[in-house]
Amino acid sequence: MRRLYVVSTSCLGLFLSFMLLVSGLLVCPPSAACAVPDKNTIQKQAATQKPRTKTARTGKSVRKATQKEIKAAITMDVSRKRVLFQRNADRPVAPASLAKIMSMYVILDEVKARRVSLDSMVTVSSKAAGTGGSCMNLYAGERVRLRDLLRGMAVASGNDASVAAAQHVAGSEERFVLMMNRKAKQIGMKNSRFKNVHGLPAAGQQTTARDMLTLAARYLAAHPQALEEYHSRRYLDFHGHIPNTNPLLGLMTGVDGLKTGYVGSSGYNLITTARRGDTRLVNVLLGAPNKAVRLHEASRMVETGFESAETLAAKDAAAAKSKAAAKGGKKKTSAPAAKKNVKVQTKAQTQATLSRQTLP
User: Fold this and answer.
1) With a threshold of 0.90, does the pTM exceed it?
2) Any idea which residues carry the catalytic annotation?
């Protein structure tokens, strides 16, 4: 009896194993690619997935849910100098790699003043090459054009490139940081303080969404060529093929910049620049909890920003037209001047008068 029980148990085990094998083949036949996804595939899926929210039944619910997760945001139609949306715009947040916009601003100012050249060769120091975080893969002793370092800062968010460029321009990273804070004060960034050139975590380093809007707007006004030359590039081919960290480039119509950033204390940051027609938008988003929420909210800010700008521009045009029409209607023709008791001479009388005046 015991032997029969053992045999039955073994048969049952074999039967279950067979069924599991069959079910596995049905779910994932040999012809299908059922290999475990690699790290790149997982990252791509995470970057494109929609943010999960308990109330994500409609677009409106998603917006409400994700907005609460953003630390600060502001949208401006810089073409008309009009703020379209703001939320916690003056809340202090770590800038992370958004600090590189200020670094690039200072460098391009020095180029414009002809104190440095974009084609000058920069020798990469060991300190620059050893800087942690995102990088463009520089190595100590390498000689790189300043122009290429700027591309590395904009596209790859290279911390190594930031240090190398700062050392070349100012002689040291510390002197360059003084230049950054001087520029911040000059353009009216009232609540920002930079402690390094790349945005890696540092005590006391902070900014606000409003200050970052000021920085981006002033930077674009001073160096409009920077968008095409640096920030709108999809890839950087330097010691490898490095994609731009900006997730909206090539994804949304009109987006041509500007910069991403992340440190643990701030979350995921993004400044987006976009142009459609004669409207130029700058969106600042600080402190998203993950890349998916950042992508979702930044996309929404671009679309709703253009919609709001178009609506308000149409209202402005209608109001101007109405005002002009009302002003034209109020104009009254001037009443004829009151007639005075003036005697009108005949032609003969006039000639006679002239004759008398000319007589000796």
Assistant:
1) no
2) 97, 100, 157
